Amino acid sequence: MDSPDSDGLLAEQLLRLTRRLQRIQGRQLEPIGITPAQFRLLRTVAHYDGPPRMADLAARLDVVPRAVTTLVDGLEASGRVRRVPDPTNRRVVRIEMTDAGRTVLRSLRDARKAAAEEILAPLTTEQREVLGGLMTALVDGMPERRC
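User: That's the sequence. What structure does it adopt?
Assistant: Structure tokens below.
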């Protein structure tokens, strides 16, 4: 039977693993010149069929609009996204990924995959499959999030 102590230990292990994955990914993102938050914004923009509004991004990322503005400013300065006017409402600004943004997103996905491979290296193929099933059960059992 599971005890509160074993649940606490499991939660701590998950947190440590998450921090380790973030550190590995951060090391891989640094040479590309992008922050994890900017990476998340690029991934979010890529999931839209067309250029999203700033408000859409803030809602999807579950952050205040000002945080999106700061992220977009940095990505725009590096040429990875651009602000474009909405064709139907001139007061609305949309965020469009540039070719440079798409290129860096591919690189970042490769970096993320490499980070996961580093974390999973000690596991056999069978253990990875079991872990994948357990992670799916945890994610599917969580309340819905927007991203």
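The mean pLDDT is 87.
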